[in-house]
Write a structure and sequence with these properties.
The protein is of the alpha+beta class. It is built from five helices and eight strands, in the order H-E-E-E-E-H-E-E-H-H-H-E-E.
Length: 162
């Protein structure tokens, strides 16, 4: 039976934050792995500083989506700011962060997450007690924050400046 209410997520291991920080640093110096991993930087709602977190991004119908395991800090910051800087290696783009209502687009983005990022799906399986197939992801759409990343008006993907 999947957990049915939002909860605060605790990381799987004490190394999780360290690995995330290393990934952010490598991304900033231009070293980024191929695939779905990006860094999303969002202005902190309390500190006002740009805070960065590595995330797995799904592409569906030419649009980028990200799902969170729970009500984590980057989700609260995204809701407050409404925008972020999405980067991969030396390239970054400003994006509008649009939280999806619980509708078919949200459910389909979660189905794609389970298909495109099976290693990331393992975290969702452990956190929410689901089987990990596409329909089990769609079934918990009401408790998983999902954002679509729309291009910021007038911006484009550009090389990062140092």
């Amino acid at each position: 039976m999947p957990n049915e209410k939002p909860r605060r997520y605790t990381h799987d291991s004490p190394w999780f934050k360290l690995v995330n920080r290393i990934f952010v640093v490598l991304n900033r110096i231009g070293i980024a792995p191929a695939g779905h991993l990006y860094v999303l930087s969002i202005k902190g709602r309390k500190s006002g500083k740009m805070l960065s977190t590595p995330l797995a991004i799904v592409t569906m119908n030419g649009k980028k989506y990200v799902a969170a395991l729970a009500e984590v800090n980057w989700v609260r910051n995204a809701r407050a700011a409404g925008w972020g800087l999405l980067s991969k290696g030396r390239y970054k783009e400003r994006v509008r962060l649009v939280e999806l209502p619980v509708d078919e687009e949200r459910r389909e983005a979660l189905r794609e997450y389970s298909r495109q990022i099976p290693h990331g799906a393992e975290h969702f399986k452990r956190a929410h007690g689901i089987s990990g197939d596409a329909e089990s992801f769609a079934a918990i759409a009401a408790i998983l924050p999902v954002f679509r990343m729309d291009p910021w008006p007038g911006s484009s993907r550009t090389a990062a400046t140092t």
